[in-house]
Amino acid sequence: MILLRLISWPYARKHLVRWVLTIGGIVLGVALLVGMYTANQSVLEAFNRTVEHIAGKTQLQVSAGDGGFAEEVLERVESDPDVRAAAPVIEQVVDSGIKGQGKLLILAVDMTGDRSLRDYDLEGGDEDVMDDPLVFLAQPDSLILTRDFAARNGISSGGKIAMKTMDGDKQFTVRGILRSGGMTSAFGGNLAIMDIYAAQKFFGMGRRFDRIDIGLKDGVTLEQGQAALRKLLGPGFEVDPPSGRGQHFESLMSVYSMTMNIASLFALFIGTFIIYNSFAIAVTQRRAEIGILRALGATRGQIRSLFLGESAVAGLAGSAVGIGFGLLMAQGLTASTNAFMEGVMGASANADHMLVRPWLLVTAAAVGVVTSMVAAFLPARSAARVDPVKALQKGQYQVLSAGENRRRRTAALAAIAVAAGCIVFGRSVVAFYAGYFLAVIAMLLLTPALSLFLSKVLRGPLKWARPVEGALAADSLIQSPRRTSATVAALMLSLALVIALGGMARASYREITEWMDTTMSPDFFVTPSEVISARTYRFPDNMTDGLRQIPGIAEVQPVRIVRINFRGKPVMLVAIDSESIARRTRGQKVTAGDFDGMYRATAAQKGLIIADNFAQLDKLKLGETLEIASPAGVLRLPIAGILEDFSNQLGTIFIERALYRRLWKDDAVDVFRVYLAPGAVAAHVKAHILERFVHERRLFVLSNKEVRSWVLKVTDQWFGMTYLQLFVAVLVAILGIVNTLTVSIADRRRELGVLRAVGGLRNQIRHTIWMEALAIGIIGLTLGVAAGAVNLYYQLTIVRQSFAGIALDYTFPFGIVGLLVPVILGAAFGAALFPAESAVRSSLVEALEYE
Amino acid sequence: MSKSLVGQPILAAGRLLAGLFLLSCALPAEDARQIVAESQRRGQADSQRYEGSLEVISPSNKVTKKRWQSDRLGSYGASKAIIRFTEPPEVKGVALLVVNHPDRSSDQWMWTPAIGRDRRIAQQDRSTRFFGTDFSFEDLEERDVDQFDFSLQGEESIDGAPCWRIESKPKEGKSSQYTSSRVWIRKDNYVPVQYENYVKDKLVRRLVERDIQNLQGIWTARLLEMTDLGRKSRTILKLENVRYNAPVKDDDFTVQALRRQM
Questions:
Q1: pLDDT per position as a tens digit, B131-181
Q2: Predicted model pTM
Q3: Domain assignments of chain A as residue spans, ordered by start
Q4: Which of A354, A55, A340, A339 is nearest to A213 (CA)?
Q5: Is B123 an 8 Å CB contact of chain A?
Q6: Would you state the pLDDT for residue A622?
Q7: Which domain holds residue B210?
Q8: CB A140 to CB B85 under 8 A?
Q9: Model-level ipTM above the cut of 0.85
Q10: Cis? peptide before B170, omega within 30° of 0
Q11: Nearest-neighbour CA in chain B from A192: distance (Å)
């Protein structure tokens, strides 16, 4: 501690800017870790809180995917002697229609039977929640709002609130106010209670419920109740405690959170190199100081502890700032995670506040400190090994030995050989990841040698551009490969990530566009919601004939899309009119099977089609029999074909709609794919559709172009991370280069002083440093592009094998590289401005004091 | 007791009471169970029809009024009844079908014309209030005397009329929201004139029957006042145009019939 105060603190104070830049990596990594984890947890917790508050005394919930099930199931559940109370529920998230109030969760229940599970009289019961329970049930436009929501919007009992329903915009009457507390805090207070039978009508659900909440009789354990209900209802139903819904939501969110977490890990990884660089430089700069300490009796252990102590303090400071930034970031990220889950996954949580977990903050701080100490370990060990005699001799520098370089190259080549072996011969996931890890290690081991090589290559062009400054800049890099290589390594890793992500985005866009060209062929998509993925409303089956009768329409394809539980995972089940779809989507990319054959088998209800990503993720093969649990029992059908399909990241199964209707007893339609007759004018047909149905029900006629742009927008949202990664890369470039240049200038103070003393112009000094920065940028870019090319291969394999099952073609993202060149070189130049000015303005006397 | 005797007033409209002449053949007064059984027997009719007006007086003295028409078929404990609301306009057409069983909870269905749907009323919520009144759904049920244990607690006068005070408790295994109930049955005509229902030892509901008239030979209370002592609210039910043994068909007491508009 005394050494830290007497030795380290004065040094840190003198190089404050550099230390701030050094801990930048830790700040960024910790901020991303805290921000993303907090956002994810806040959304998850909001969902769980809503589930918990709404569950009330519910012990078990019966569900059958998000398509719900027929009403008759209620009587079967009630017949179970273990069941004390069974309450049907429909949950829908709708637009509140009030500016700034966002979504409203509609909890639709049967108030004549729901009170044994949920407490509606929250504070004693001397005041009624409902003005008149009979009127509430008799009038389907009745709503009960929470007191908070009503107060926020100046709505009192008897007031009106507009909502979108299947019958169009409708005014609802507030016939009750729920007092604050308990259930009212679900969904951030944006909760409305509706009669379940009214909800069936308004959301076009037919005679179906979403789930049944269950209370068990006294003495019946959860396991007993669960087992009895599972036996009674069969495999098509899920019987789980309310907490099971949180797990389902979490599994939907996991795809998103995994992407987010990778960014934070990468930032920390890159931060390690920046810290390593700074400490390696600090050790070099402070050799004389270390020599004096050693001469005065300081042990090697004390020197090592001094540097490790410094790194711990730097890590702690970086973590503290990172936690602060992370919490700020979390607010924005929570909103975007919410939006993603709602827009892409169709699941809403309405996280209204952040959930800050103390253990996360402690862990983040520990991660920051440990990362910093790990990064400083090698420099600290090197400091401990400093020979006091040599250290006190002026002009003596320890340089990277030729032997050390050779060892690194040998190790790198060995790592490359093993990594290549893993690709060629490795069959297991472990071998693949081991190969990936070794490839990264090889890149890092080769960085000093390649940096040196590239510096020598660049010497010529730099000298050609500016004979004096160019040569000086290149020589500075050549003489200090260790100083340069850590920054280059950080930059290389960062760019490798950006290039891989950019490559994946590019490949995805191309694949998705090709898929849309063949699959998204209808002229119109008639949907009950503005967004095609929304599942709040649905159409009745009889609308199909209504549409077919409209002049100018050649073909109508009703499609039902539900999420079902398959082997514990929420996958998408799409019910289609196979024969019609096959006729209109002939260009679809077939992965396995014969196009006509697979659709024929599906139409005959003798087979089903699955998406390629589903086959990859679940290791499914053509001809294999799938067992799908339906409310009517287990559906066993062979896989008749595998198609490329991007509908759902967790997998999609296509079955014949008639089969779905029979087994699921559900004839609702989520979207109508409409094809126009030759010569029909699209605008006229659209007007006819609207004219025919707009007074009957809520509907949107989306053109092919509108749906395509929505799909691309979702893809953009997904790859929005690319921009965040790009930001991290730029920041790393700036941090690393500023750091390196600052040290480079400090190292060369004497050299620069001499240069100025012999007549060197200030501009020449400036240009030297600018060129050095640009050279680092060029080296980093070159190695980054090469590493990116390798990383892209691994990332595409990860996406295919374990992430989304999507097989994307390898296409190098030249466009991204084209963008990176000016961005990184611009960042390098910008990073050089301050150090250059600092060098130009430094005291000549101080610089030459040793002469 | 609570179900069998409190439930009767709405559906059986003010208790069906036999003539005074039956006093002569009265069963031994000290046998509480037989007193109750006799009280029920004297109220028997093949059918009953009446128009009811309902006033719910909330704790803040807000008065909500409704009217309905009630039809009932069958003997006590195995009867069927349909209540159709006629006023106010917001609830007009809403109907409730109650099918009583002597040995278990009744089955109940409700019809809401605005959405054209009938719904089965869940078994589990029999203790909740019957559509905002101070009666509970359980109070509508009729249950056999064999489901309760009775004990004669003493004799008291209500409005100057000597009464037996009888306590009932559900037999073991029989569920009820009430731990016990007390009923005051007039000695002269076996008319129950007051009920008190307890949860543990706390009095939660009191029903008072007034304006007792002999209609077609059956003693009938035409005014019933239920007080919820917890909420401090009251419900007053008045019976008009009461008719017994009118010709009604079994088909009129089905879920299909419930859907038919008046």
A1: 888 888 888 777 677 888 899 989 999 988 999 999 999 888 777 888 999
A2: 0.69
A3: 1-50+246-398, 59-241, 419-518+707-851, 538-697
A4: A55
A5: yes
A6: 93
A7: 2-253
A8: no
A9: no
A10: no
A11: 19
